[in-house]
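TICKET #2291
ISSUE: user wants both folds in one file
ATTACHMENT 1:
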Amino acid sequence: MIWKPKPLPFSDEQKDYYEKACTALDKLRMRDLLTDLVNIHSPTGAEAEASYFLKKYLEEAGFRSTFQQTGPESGNAWGSIGEPTGPSLMLYAPIDTHLEADPDYDLPYTGEFLRADMLPEAVVDGDLVVGLGAANPKCMLACLIEAAHAVCEAGVPLKGQLIAGTAGGGMPVDMSQRFHAGRSSGVVQMLTSGVWPDFALIVKPWWVVYAEEPGIAWFKVTVRGDLGYAGIPRGVPNFRSSIVPAADVIKRIEAFLPEYTKRNTAGTVEPHGAISCVRAGWPDKPAFPSAATEIYLDMRINPRTTPAQVRAQFAEFMNSLAEECPDLDCSWSMVGSVPGGKTDVDNFIVQSALRAWEFVEGAPHGEPPRMAGQTDGAIIRRLGIPTARIGYPWPSPEIPEEYMTGGLAGMGAAWMPDMMKTARAVVYVIIDTLMRERVEVGL
């Protein structure tokens, strides 16, 4: 891939409106929007209140806005300005957060206590905003909305249509108690409800442009033994533990995952994997060893590889494990999958994002580092919408160290000057894409 954008200079009119829109960018307004979003709790599958708030915000900013109820507690929102006869561009970020902010549900799995960056209560200290999802995903959404707001406020004469939207169900989770929300469930509903742009631009961590993102494959491995009783002496004939052999299986999976990553690394995707959950028995019945121990893992999928191909690779590993350990009673299944997605680097939207990045940074972009972070961008691309991902500086040296450890390293702490930098790049992409005729952007 060539990561050097093709030159496409702005006209004098584009330059003028770019400056006007950047002047209209308001850091305090963006911070206030982010604060409001953090204060509205929106765990996966329960985003309706936050999405409806955003619908009203877009309406007051001058957009034609819509709220879409997608479940008893979930919902999407979007707004549009401009003319649908020209190119259409969707600015997108999800709105759901990865934690429930409920000590009974989250502890002890998040740590000993819920920190400030794990609670839906925004703490503002100048340019720093701390709270659940403050950086990912809510400051990403606030940045995109502020860029769209500034373009609207500056009166940019768009030849195409600008759509600013968000959806629930974006986290790589499966919330069974909320109609299995997650794994991009919301954005699929939004796009197939008439919101179908020519191009999409998403924001995620890292101040860099990406044209592809990995998918996910979830596996469950079950190690079986016998139900036991702690009062029976060890070494009783015919008793088999499920837990002790599972420990060995875990070590073997851990050895397999780096080899999987090496085998499937290509382009800008380095698909890692991790064991995320181990379950066995009843916490309230420790006297009775479990007859089954379940191991759950997430393996990221390079967009050049299908979920079926990843399943076949895992099958090879499990077959070799069975041959090496003939006494092991073990079964497995794939329990979730989302394919990766990619957009040609030569596509207009990726080229525009690269031009925007270089204009704001004042330096060549170069090839981005490989990554494994999954977003809704993968499924948006798979649905056939060319998509570019542009980031924000991360990790920021301005974020206190206490928020950069655990809690997914900074997901709950946002630094507004970083987002203003990204907002200027987003404004550039809007001007570059929507102040042109369809033929000029390859449509």
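ATTACHMENT 2:
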Amino acid sequence: MTNDHVAPHEIRPMFVGGEWRQSRSGDSMPTYNPATEELIAHVAAGTAADVDDAVSAAREAAPAWGGRPWTERAGILRAMAGRIRDQVDRLAPLDVDNAGLPITTSRVDVLRAADEVEYFAGIAGETKGSTAPLHPGIVSYTLREPYGVVGRIIPFNHPFNFSAAKIAAPLAAGNAVILKSPDQTPLASLAFAELVEDLLPPGVLSVLTGVGAEVGGAIASHPGIPRVAFIGSVETGRAVMRAGAEHIKHVTLELGGKNPMIICDDIDPALAAKEAVNGMNMRKTMGQSCQSNSRVFVHDSIADEFVGHLAEICNGLIVGDPYDEATEMGPLGFRGHWERVLGHIANAVEDGATLVCGGGRPDHLTRGYYVAPTVFADVDPGMRLFRDEVFGPVMAVIRWSDEDEMLAQANALDLGLTARIWTRDAARAHRLVAGVESGLVWVNGNATKPRGFPFGGFKLSGLGKEGSLEELVSYTREKAVMAAF
């Protein structure tokens, strides 16, 4: 679905309890193309009353859905994955139009969503209990039961992927799901609902659009939703957790990262620069990834050469029309975020960091929320760029010579999502792995995580694991049973 198929005056309805409908308030909100700054469409602006309706439908549908054999639920998930793969050429343009992702990235995102849905279909039977010896004549065992209703709140940077992939585990575990689409990039979530609505009983999946504080807040605080999972900023994650605390909800959070890449003196500076750009996800998401290595700690002995290579690579990246197959970087997701990223760049200049390349919209582009790949050198821990998550194509280069001091700086923040370590010295690699405070560490690589590998952060970067058996089990409650006969 591209701009040619969505009229700007159209108000796209929400999918609530198996029906397409407008908001209870009748209000709508606009959504834009970040490459052109043009209005694409209006979507329904949901309210707490719409969340109430979705919860009522979900609670009615959940017992039958959770009571189905897991093989039936798995079969439906496999059907979903098949439809996603069959429709990749129709689905991928949605995130180009609404989120600015390059078409090459968007295709990969769609296919990875299908892979994750199929993965959870494959392990749906692993929500098992256990038995334990207790006493002659008494049988003791545990059961894994679904929560019933789950709320999932997703961010703007991977709209289709998150819409499809992040409902797979709760559905596989037997829950009904209420999905809150991203405020600024909602069209992919609605398209996913259209794609799969006939596969699920009414109420098992609802997709709500609207402002996060209104709809997301209602999901986080609703007494009828005992399990909530959120992906986004630390600030909003705190709000979700506070709202859930009133009803002692099970809350998992995948939050921000200001992730270190540690480059030792035994690594070729040219290779390190190439991998720093890869690890920053410049080409995939314009740096709009919580996993990006936005703080690059490079050994002083190779720092000058490294920065030179880094600038050369960044200056050569193709920034432009996200529909062009040659484009490597599209625009940022929406105006407000673009303005925030430019504000972070201005702060870095004000604080005295050395601007090596980039710093604003590329000269050849006159509209769109574009930011050229930007590198700052001579960054120190007293600067805002060292501490603040930019969530854009901006890297901070920090020189180091003392390993203990560098590791203390890498761990100095309250975030701990990912880290990358580059060295040929195995002993040093394992020492740094043990010392860095991050939930996921790559050594000499930027490879995609293996399917089923647990992902989640330390400290303020989150609670819980995703993309794995741990995630599936987290959508169940354990009941202990002792039965005497």
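RESOLUTION: both attachments delivered.
EXTRA DETAIL ON ATTACHMENT 2: The domain at 3-255+462-484 is CATH 3.40.605.10 (Aldehyde Dehydrogenase; Chain A, domain 1).
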